[in-house]
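== Folding the chain ==

***
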Amino acid sequence: MNSEGLAWQSKLVLLLVLPAAATDVALKTQWWAVRQPNVAIWTLGLSMLLGLVTWRLRAATPAAAATGTAITASLMYSTLLFPYGPWHSGLIPVLAVSLLAFAATRMGREKKERLGRAEGRQGRAAAQVAANLGIAALVSSEFAQSWFADRGWFAHAATAAPPLLVAGLAAMAEAAADTVSSEIGQVFGGRPRMLTTLRAVEPGVDGAVSAAGTLTGVTAAAMVAAAGTWALHGDSKMLAVSCAGGVFGLVFDSLLGATVELSGWLNNDAVNFLSTAAAAGFALGVMAVVGVRPG
């Protein structure tokens, strides 16, 4: 099945993420505007600024920039710490993902265009943004925190929220790792090999991996995990688990690419969404055993 036949999957991902993020932002903006207006002002202002800059740099379409604004604001509200400072929130890892993706996408663009794998001149679409950052926003939301708390999950941790923040950070680490490994691998990775068969294939084939792409992907995951750990006042366990989750999701992404995506059952947005979910799930699984919370 061609990519147009799977376009419904991209629409489904966007439908799962955008209404939830937009509703969360609307409700929390109203709540904070009454009680502590500076939280609402900084959150909306910085989220909109990031969306505007992303659009002006042609890294995202207008719809994608608006989607990214909603997701960023939702993450900022869900991860804010006191004493309040806008930099100690989900804004920092989102910014790290955005910068890494922008740099990697622009690198070696001419070669990617010859391969037919270059990003569109208008930047990423709304569904791509939702696929990469949506899971982080969903698992960090107040609804998810309440759902876990009501069931007594992670009772050994201080609250139900910190494990979900680590899971969200793992999802963002995977998003950066996947984008960077794919974009850099096509330019500097030489002939990659299929993850399932180790057979050498042409650059850009779904599920193909290279040493250069994998190494830069792991580095990107570590950078996002480190940025998020600093922003959320985390400790070494938070850093390790979120980074490990990102790397696990990267491998899972390649496995899906080599199987269901290559077979035409899933498109790239669905694969990215599931891979970030796998990263978050891996982090939650680890924390269910060892317990991790911000310092």
